[in-house]
């Protein structure tokens, strides 16, 4: 089966111009001159330990457009054309050799391989090891938000020391920056499930939303109090889930407890150097860049929380596949409250 590209919008990758092109069955990045091109792309097939999925929805993450802009070179993309987006939900259409536990018709949530390209498309191939069944209580839209955003929040909190078995006594004090974003909204909910005391930062328009998810203290980051990151109750933070950029170590250091950690989700080169310095000097207070390790167990745990109504996915906006460019632009703007969803048509 082949799909024909129907339109594109230009982006820059070094000295080359690319088009992110919407097609009947796929969105793909292709090298172009000054305009789009028509290219036919085959629907993939499932190989060993893989599943072919007919997708219902996909969710956009900032890393998707950062790859598109060449910000992760030379690691990604490894080759062109490169198809963006990894977080999806859909139905199993075909089971590859060696797959056990899945069959055609199963509803699933999956995280695709970002190194070789995702699949903002009607069909995608997913590894069995990063695919989990989606129960009827969890919609495709809710499930698609989990793999990168909720998975990152979960691993960041565990790095701080959060446990989800009720054994955190006394509770840790945590700060979550940019708490109304895709990762932040999950982080607030997960932190409260772990019994932590949560201070959060966000814009004024989202303060009540973040409070409604359980945050104990919420700071408007545009105010002097918010900029200082100081807890209104005077608590020092055992850990920070840092979901934004532009905050220096000199701001974090005075608000940390004696062994506090800042888990940086998007570390700059300067932040990485600072983390190395902390490690080699055996600093008690540390900046720790987070290297996320996606795994099936975490995804099953998160889907279970949605099933049991212990957590929810908040949606910023929804777009059909034919308007994927608008979803892309919405993510690049950087002010989404929750997840940006692309729904497949047909």
| Percent of residues in beta strands | 25-35%
Helix content: 25-40%
The overall pLDDT average reads: 85
Major β-sheet annotation: 7 strands, mixed
Estimated radius of gyration: 21 Å
Low-confidence stretches: 2-39
Query: N-to-C SSE series?
Result: EEEEEHEEEEHHEHEHEHEHEHEHEHE
In DSSP terms (H or I, runs of 4 or more residues), the helix count works out at: 10
Q: What's the N-to-C terminus distance? A: 16 Å
Shape: globular
Number of strands: 17
The SS-based structural class is alpha/beta
Q: What would you say this structure looks like, in words?
A:
25% of the residues lie in helices and 31% in strands. The chain is of the alpha/beta class and 346 residues long. The strands form 3 sheets. Strands 5, 6, 7, 8, 9, 16 and 17 form a 7-stranded mixed β-sheet that branches. A 6-stranded parallel β-sheet has the order 12-11-10-13-14-15. Strands 3-2-1-4 form a 4-stranded antiparallel β-sheet, with no helix packed on it. Helix 5 links the parallel strand 11 (197-202) and strand 12 (217-220). Helix 3 (146-160) crosses helix 9. The two termini are 16 Å apart. Mean pLDDT is 85; it is low at 2-39.
């Amino acid at each position: 089966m082949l799909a024909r590209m129907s339109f594109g919008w230009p982006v820059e990758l070094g000295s080359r111009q690319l088009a992110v092109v919407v097609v009947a069955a796929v969105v793909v990045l292709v090298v172009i001159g000054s305009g789009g091109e028509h290219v036919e792309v085959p629907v993939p097939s499932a190989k060993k330990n893989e599943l072919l999925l007919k997708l219902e929805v996909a969710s956009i993450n900032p890393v998707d457009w950062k790859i598109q802009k060449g910000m992760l070179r030379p690691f990604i993309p490894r080759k062109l054309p490169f198809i963006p987006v990894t977080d999806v939900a859909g139905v199993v259409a075909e089971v590859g050799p060696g797959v056990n536990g899945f069959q055609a018709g199963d509803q699933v949530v999956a995280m695709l391989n970002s190194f070789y390209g995702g699949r903002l498309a009607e069909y995608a191939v997913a590894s069995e090891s990063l695919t989990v069944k989606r129960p009827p209580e969890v919609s495709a839209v809710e499930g698609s938000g989990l793999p990168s955003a909720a998975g990152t929040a979960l691993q960041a909190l565990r790095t701080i020391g959060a446990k989800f078995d009720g054994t955190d006594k006394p509770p840790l004090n945590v700060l979550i920056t940019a708490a109304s974003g895709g990762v932040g909204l999950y982080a607030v909910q997960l932190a409260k499930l772990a019994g932590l005391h949560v201070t959060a930062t966000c814009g004024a328009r989202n303060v009540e939303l973040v409070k409604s998810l359980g945050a104990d203290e919420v700071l408007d980051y545009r105010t002097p109090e918010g900029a200082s990151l100081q807890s209104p109750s005077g608590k020092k933070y055992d850990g920070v889930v840092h979901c934004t950029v532009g905050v220096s170590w000199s701001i974090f250091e005075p608000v940390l407890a004696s062994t506090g950690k800042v888990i940086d989700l998007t570390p700059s080169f300067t932040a990485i150097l600072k983390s190395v310095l902390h490690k080699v000097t055996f600093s008690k207070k540390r900046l720790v860049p987070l290297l996320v390790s996606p795994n099936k167990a975490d995804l099953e745990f998160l889907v279970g929380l949605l099933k049991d109504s212990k957590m929810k996915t908040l949606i910023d906006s929804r777009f059909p596949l034919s308007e994927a460019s608008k979803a892309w632009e919405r993510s690049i703007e950087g002010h989404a409250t929750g997840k940006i969803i692309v729904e497949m048509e047909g």
